[in-house]
Amino acid sequence: MKLFSRLMPSSGIRQVPKSVTVHAVLLAYTVIALFPIIVVVINAFKERRAIFRDPLGLPDSDSYTLMGFEQVLLRSDFGLYSWNSLVVTILAVGLVLLLGAMAAWALTEYKFKGNLLITFLFAMGIMIPIRLGTVSILSLMVSLDLVNTLTALVLVYIAQGLPLAVYILSEFVRTIPKELTEAARCDSVSEYKIFFCIILPLLKPAMATVAVFTMIPIWNDLWFPLILAPGEETRTITLGVQQFVGQYVTDWNSVLSALTLAIVPVLILYTIFSRQLIRGLTSGAVK
To answer: Considering only CA atoms, which of 78, 244, 109, 216 is closest in space to residue 157?
Structure first.
């Protein structure tokens, strides 16, 4: 018995059920999160009758069809909508990362009057939804003659994503050793080179985290494209899908097919940045 107790300590025995419980909860959450996506993708390849008759069933030889994808590609300018969403997302995320990193570095590294006030304002930006200021934003864009332009969407999405980016990156900047910047200053390295050559490369894991958290709400947003850029030339994917949704009749094949095509870029980008996302969450973003 003594030998058995040495090989199987009681603490290890108690940890097994806890580990199983944690993995069971995570598995259940994964199933819940993926279930809507799986349902959308499955029904995108089925006929309309099959969608309502058996929404959870896989497409078979009788129900399989690509009619929805054909309608999306032929009846709508899906390529333009995808390009608009891609341009807005890339520009907004890129500027959020750059400006957020610069603001986080300045608020963390330098002490000046108004530092605490600016930090508080960024915190308020996280707590207060930007949609509460929709009327004021629309009035501002009208006065600047930016309605029905992608520039309006980019500016709004920068304002939307910047507070969270500054918060996450500030927490990560605090984990960078001060000796690195002090040694660089002793060698007469300029502040710009310190930021772009030393600090920015070290922020890559946290920036990947910010990129994912910023990219998904922008790509899936319908509110601001509908209000600020409803024109045919400036529609995004989410707004372009709405043309298949009617007041009395909805082309569900086309809607589900368009949503399936819209999911693919997000999944690809998430797969690319998944490792950096995990590193950012575990090494600095939650400290």
So the answer is: 216
Share of the chain above pLDDT 90, in %: 25
What pLDDT score does 85 carry?
A: 92
Question: What gap in Å lies between CA 95 and CA 175, rounded to an integer?
Answer: 23
The C-alpha atoms of residue 42 and residue 51 are separated, in whole angstroms, by: 9
Classify domain 76-285 at the CATH superfamily level. Answer: MetI-like (1.10.3720.10)
Long-range contacts for 75-79 (Cβ within 8 Å, ≥24 apart)?
A: 75/254, 76/240, 76/243, 76/244, 76/258, 77/232, 77/240, 78/237, 78/240, 78/258, 78/261
Going by C-beta distance under 8 Å and a sequence separation of 6 or more, which residues neighbour residue 218? 88, 89, 92, 93, 157, 160, 161
pLDDT of residue 94: 94
**Tokens 């995320």 identify what position?**
93
| Phi-psi region at 188: left, alpha or beta (left = phi > 0; alpha = psi -120 to 50) | left
CB of 93 closer than 8 Å to CB of 218: yes
List phi, psi (to 5°) of 45.
-105, 20
- Of residues 268 and 218, the one with the higher pLDDT is 218
DSSP E strand stretches across 156-203: none
Out of 1-5, 160-164, 197-201, least confident range: 1-5
